[in-house]
Amino acid sequence: MTITITAFERSPDGGKGLARDTRVRWALEEAGQPYQVRLVSFRAMKEPAHLALHPFGQIPTYEEGDLVLFETGSIVLHIAQRHAGLLPQDANARARAITWMFAAVNSVEPPVLEFANARLLESDKPWAKERLPLVADRVRSRLKQLCARLGDGEWLDGAFSAGDLMMVSVLLRLRPSGILDEFADLAAYVARGEARPAYKRAFAAQLAVNTA
Ligand code: GTB
């Protein structure tokens, strides 16, 4: 069955791979699944046809036959559960990999987003100078904990999994700030993710859209 995802017609990052369709493309590449992309403008995202797919008028969405999904955590989990390559066979290891997916979106992504918003959307506010260091320190304390758990391991729990795919995707959002480089083991972990051929294909595909 054909898989169709949605992505920005023009991503605000100009193709740095930070929009969330990249993680879905990456999961599909890891799983060896071909997919089509429907590009949507900011205006089209808020119109009824797209709102029927995504209640919050965002990208990405995922369509496969009658199935329509939104939320990248759910989309990546769906791909990982149906195709080999993203979740271990062993039941406990599988549950732990899924736990890392939730950790990425529930425990790491919120402070990362708060920080990205403080830097990019709120920098003109009168309170921005005072708030930014507080928000940056919240990111640092999460990264310190994550770094302690990762140690010098290659991936978070044994072999590469959907948990790593989600975590690397979340951490990549920090790259422009330089904060990731304060944690050498985490920076190396993210670089290992980016070095995966499936990530490179996903990155190139979204870049092609944004440089066309
Ligand atoms: N929780 C949802 C998920 O994981 O799927 C969040 C989806 C989401 O935030 N989508 C964003 C969107 O559609 C695009 S990815 N925004 C438009 C809107 O809400 O109207 C977020 C994003 C956007 C831009 C950059 N960038 O330019 O660097 C990075 C990330």
- Report low-confidence residues grouped into runs of 5 or more: none
Mean pLDDT: 96
In spatial order, strands of the major sheet run 2-1-3-4
Number of strands: 4
Return the structural class: alpha+beta
Helical fraction equals: 55-70%
Compounds present?
A: S-(P-nitrobenzyl)glutathione
Determine the number of helices (DSSP H or I, runs of at least 4 residues). Answer: 9
| Quaternary class | single chain
What value does the Rg take, in angstroms?
17 Å
Distance between the termini: 28 Å
Question: Can you tell me about this structure?
Answer:
It is a single chain. This protein is α+β, with helices and mostly antiparallel strands. Helix content is 56%, strand content 9%. It is built from 9 helices and 4 strands, in the order βαβααββαααααα. The protein has a 4-stranded mixed beta sheet with strand order 2-1-3-4. Strand 1, helix 1 and strand 2 form a beta-alpha-beta unit. The longest helix has 30 residues. The structure holds S-(P-nitrobenzyl)glutathione. The site of S-(P-nitrobenzyl)glutathione has 12 residues, from loops.
Summary of the model, kept short:
With 212 residues, this protein is of the alpha+beta class.
Ordered list of secondary-structure elements with their pairings:
Blueprint: E1 3-8, H1 21-30, E2 36-40, H2 42-45, H3 48-51, E3 61-64, E4 67-70, H4 72-82, H5 91-120, H6 128-150, H7 162-172, H8 184-194, H9 197-211
Parallel strand pairs: 1-2
Antiparallel strand pairs: 1-3, 3-4
Helix pairs in contact: 1-4, 1-7, 1-9, 5-6, 5-7, 7-8
